[in-house]
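Give me structure tokens for this 160-residue protein.
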Amino acid sequence: MATLSATPRDDIIAPQVFTAVQRAGGAEDAELHPLRDITTHEMEEVRQLKHPPREVARVMETVHLVISGQVPSSTAAVEWSDVLRTVIRVDFLKRARNIELENLVEQPRLIDYICRRYFTGEDALVPERVRWASRAVVAFFGWTVAIVAGLLPSFPVKVG
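Here you go.
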């Protein structure tokens, strides 16, 4: 994972996200997780959820967004059915493990959306709530946080 050398500023959101995760006691979850120890059982647990706990849904929404590389077209929440379509793909873990960070650097609106919707504010994802909701998604949480925190030091908060 790229280290954050930038000093937190009002116009940069990544250091705030990374710091919030560390303060929440999840510094170990902010490492770029290789997702190699995700078991078939854990993947099936996520795939079979019709109505997942809120924190599980939100973590997997971030994974879906990173993998799809698309900003949702509306302000409405990402549909769980869309998340499931991503997760049930045979190549899901391979795609997650081989994510091209260079492509995400070219997606500042997507990264800004993920930060604002999932990692800041009163409803921010934090390690304790994620762990409490599901051990199966903790690795995905760490993976997403590491990607976002590593990419954002140079992205302004106000994008496009």
